[in-house]
What does this fold into?
Amino acid sequence: MSLFRTITRSTNFRHGGSLVAAMLVLQAGVLGVGGYLTLSAAKSGVEAGLHESATGNTASAHALTHETIAWATASGVVLLGLSLLGTSVVIRKYDNVLVRMNKQLGHEVERRSRQSLVIRNGLIFGLAKLADYRDTDTGRHLERICQYTGLLAEALRDQFAEITPAWIERLKLAASMHDIGKVGIPDTILLKPGKFTPEERTIMQTHPVIGADTLISIRRRVGDDDLMNMGIQVTLSHHERWDGKGYPYGLVADQTPLSARIVALADMYDALTSKRVYKHAMSHEQAKQIILDNRGSHFDDRIVDAFLCVHKRFDEVRHELACETTSRENFTLPESANAVEAERTRLAA
It folds into this structure.
């Protein structure tokens, strides 16, 4: 006899018995083995009640049957609670495993991203340095430029909201790309130990556009990137002047990006204080004076003022990162104001 029919017969009312039977069957489905054992015990109890009924003891049969159903129901509730508790424990356990795995995955993604950035930055700096070797006798020119731009940017942080620590780090690397366009300039012009002819000057003044076009081509392939965008700004505009007399576009004042205005002063200082095939190196004080004289004309007033705040650090970096050919003992100073003016003319190119 099925449990459903057994309970129905023992309770003398089909609807109530059906309901209890359905509840017990549901418990069996949810609880598995535990539920099965509970229902087996319930069935035995109900059948015992039927036996009492068959012998004429109806009251005893009803009492035994209801007690059995109550016991089975209570047991089922307990088993259901234990089952749900166990399920909750398992879920929490797997949740913890997933959280741990997600953290590990996140750390690995961050590690690989940092590694990729280091590789990318190293490649950028290395390629920029290859271009720099064609134009200079001082192999550490780019390292000094990076340090000078960082010093200026730090001194300007209170004046420009866009300058953040991340912005400064980008600028230092972007500054290394400022002259990559010189790879497109013939050596006869680039290394000429004298004043340019008008034709040579025109060719020389194309190097910002050559460099920017190169970086724009890279950006088309790799997609938009904050470093590449800043590199393009610096490369294209570091020869612009505050008074609009620079090149290639004659931008005036704030039309030139801040990044390029900072690099322009850093590049000027390093060019003045470094030895080239066409000139001797100036002293720190001479370079400082030329920069001060160009405040508001060649350079943004605020950037010159920032330079004056950190100029001693410029001098320290200059000596720390000097090559043998430009060491402190080997500096040869121009002998006259005419020589200084000649330096300005050459640098204007």
Observations:
- Residues 144 and 320 are 9 Å apart (CA to CA).
- Residues 3-101 form one domain.
- Confidence is low (pLDDT under 50) at residues 10-39, 324-345.
